[in-house]
């Protein structure tokens, strides 16, 4: 069994391509991780997710601790066996969703107590308990518990949350020592939209020597330029040879721009959530299948795609499925979107390896700007 | 291109096994037809439906005339191309769902006018228009428009609806003459729970010489014994060498019992609808995955199944998916149920061919009576 490691194979400006090695298999970076919130990537079979080229998926500690419960998953052989995913799994700490979903939250130095949004039952999440839960799930890459504040916010509140997150990072790291070799715990940079607080956070975490670093608390409503400025501020202070994970981001353009600034890993609900609502991401920008212009369009979404969902069904049929709220519409457009996100990352890896990442970004953005293929003239 | 025909290969009592030949391929009988209401079998890829051994699927004229519309589907190349199903498709006449779903219905000798349950827009359905719509869809096997009354009901009302359905059968048959060779129009026996009315309906339809005969207006709330008594009353008066289709039926036991009485074809939403609600049909009876007893059960539903959904996921995982209302729960249990219905019919065909249908029924019922495999002792 090999341990956890990261090897950079090529650089192009600040962008890098490489491989995160885990005992459950390699993760080619830059990597997009499909979100498997409740031990399932919504509307997808795990075989399909794998076939798209995803090396790793994400699980949500908050949802899984509520249902079916961490101890229950452990008893059933862990999250991999439970959900049928044999590759690496990354879990978040639960903190972000406690703040966005749970009720009756009470935050103290010790941790956070809250009521389940499902049935109101009480839970406590501390740095130690979060790491324990992620260990019970059997997560290959785990996150420290952090406090993530909404933006915009007062500097004092951002600073306080960042400092608390650093103390929780220390506690998480100590708690994580009990876990088997080969797993990794990432520290999470906080500091909102304040560059100096972000830098202070990054430096303090770097001094703790984590095997990987996450950038949290972004894509919470701020403009893309603020997000990118924060990434730029932070990167010089994070160990360069360790993987950099931008949490919960983002649009295809966010991914391109963040890769250019040295980010290696991403996760986001956008391809799956928007897919369920009829919005497809494509080489030619976004396509909203609710729109009546597709109603009689016999063409597939993208006949050159390697994804059957983009290639083997007419736009008129996808439109019909979305309008009639058929499950298959969600299934097909989710599939299309996850395929596109994987294709985008595969293209980035290949372009960085040839030293042509800027050209790749330009070409991809040109495709989006072109907009959808010319409207069909029935 | 071969035409439409039916060849009986073997008989066992009143049960028969054979093949309905259509230009789009054979239908092995007894056959269960998965319901593809809105040009999709809910939660399934057509490839999966085919791989389960389904030879034919059903489409609903009422739903398809509302959305996306028959003329639109015709413009897009027909229902087969639209939904991606290359085998034969059977469509109903729309009449049953007009009666159960549409609003502001007005029934006359001419036909029925109604408002869409989706957006209130007005439609008219006559025997001629129903056949025209089914032709535009490109259905291989079509149904005459009929009037189907709820049970129990007054004899006079049942009689009146049956007589109207006979006049509509004549009109449907004339309208159908415009359609290409190889397609078939079935007449529909009505008559509620009144044996003599059923017999009168069957005789009158037989005299019109249809290529197949449906038994409609059953499984509308009456006890199974009434349904079986009606089938028994009708069968001696239907041409023996033509396919017999029992519409909208039913439970696995209904299928077994109806096959024993000479029925060749079935359709029902039960395997798909119940699947979406967490109820699985199995060799050992029904299993409700909402039930907490599955929460920590690591066993698959049926490890000897050829269906991956029954074989490759734990009961605990299926329970979790149902409880969290994940799409994958509906997808997997629908898959399990359609697999079981196909397996049930494949077993019936094989048993009839060997002259052992009574033994087959007994063995299948013994499995159900045994109930689910012994509860798991965690």
From TrEMBL, chains A, B:
GO biological process, one term: tRNA queuosine(34) biosynthetic process
InterPro entries, alphabetized: ArchSynthase1/Queuine_TRR, TGT, TGT-like_sf, tRNA_ribo_trans-like
Pfam families named among the record's database cross-references: TGT
GO annotation, cellular component aspect: cytosol
Highest taxon of the lineage: Bacteria
Domain annotation tRNA-guanine(15) transglycosylase-like: ranges: 14-367
Keyword Glycoprotein: no
Active site residues per record: 92, 267
Residues noted as binding substrate in the record, renumbered to the chain: 92-96, 146, 190, 217
Alphabetical keyword list: Glycosyltransferase, Queuosine biosynthesis, Transferase, tRNA processing
Pathway(s): tRNA modification; tRNA-queuosine biosynthesis
Gene3D superfamilies membership: Queuine tRNA-ribosyltransferase-like
GO molecular function: tRNA-guanosine(34) queuine transglycosylase activity
EC number(s) stated in the UniProt entry for this protein: 2.4.2.29
Region (RNA binding) residue spans: 248-254, 272-276
Assembly behavior: Homodimer. Within each dimer, one monomer is responsible for RNA recognition and catalysis, while the other monomer binds to the replacement base PreQ1.
HAMAP family, alphabetized: Q_tRNA_Tgt (MF_00168)
Family: Belongs to the queuine tRNA-ribosyltransferase family.
Its job: Catalyzes the base-exchange of a guanine (G) residue with the queuine precursor 7-aminomethyl-7-deazaguanine (PreQ1) at position 34 (anticodon wobble position) in tRNAs with GU(N) anticodons (tRNA-Asp, -Asn, -His and -Tyr). Catalysis occurs through a double-displacement mechanism. The nucleophile active site attacks the C1' of nucleotide 34 to detach the guanine base from the RNA, forming a covalent enzyme-RNA intermediate. The proton acceptor active site deprotonates the incoming PreQ1, allowing a nucleophilic attack on the C1' of the ribose to form the product.
Name under which the protein is recorded: Queuine tRNA-ribosyltransferase
Name of the encoding gene: tgt
